[in-house]
Amino acid sequence: LGLFAAVALNGTGNRVMTSQDGINWTARVSAADNGWVSITWAAGLGLFVAVASSGNSNRVMTSPDGIVWTARASAADNGWLSVIWSPDLSLLVAVANSGTGNRVMTSPDGITWTARASAADNSWNSVTWATELGLFVAVASSGVGNRVMTSPDGINWTTRTSAADNTWNSVTWTAALGLFWAVAS
Question: How many other β-carbons are positioned within 10 Å of the β-carbon of residue 165?
Fold first, then answer.
């Protein structure tokens, strides 16, 4: 689409903005005034997908163009903080910082979401996909020695030993270096 899209925690009816050049931005009407915290582009679906930390059974919204947004039912009213698209699996995965045994949800289309068992009930803040490894990795801000979890399919998750029990906020993968990078506050 040649388009940037961003989502916001606050605002009234304008919690999305788009830009074609990263300089000039236009406010867009969000599907709901939820606390939108993460957005991804699912190229295989031709769809923007955003997740929220607040809302009432509508903590997902989708858009084919970044302008018109449709609310979708989330698998649970958890605090969804991160969403990623795996082009290899044709699967969306989101992680949350709240919920009991269901802090992961997956969707093949951005519309229908299924709750999945997280490896632990940690505060999962970020998830990424590494095509070269065929692996999802999520990081958390809580837990003891287990603030990382991995999954080859988005459904079955395994805890991993974190380097330190820091407040891990974001994780990404770089194929060029063959490394995951995580940062903490």
Answer: 15
pLDDT, tens digit (0-9, with 9 covering 90-100), for 20-66: 999 999 999 999 999 999 999 999 999 999 999 999 999 999 999 99
**Tokens matching residue 173:** 């993968």
Full-model pTM:
0.96
Strands of the sheet containing 158-160, edge to edge, are 124-130, 135-140, 148-151, 158-160
* Beta-strand runs (E) in the chain: 4-7, 16-19, 26-28, 36-42, 47-52, 60-63, 70-72, 80-86, 91-96, 104-107, 114-116, 124-130, 135-140, 148-151, 158-160, 168-174, 179-184
Q: Which residues pair with 26 in a beta bridge?
A: 18
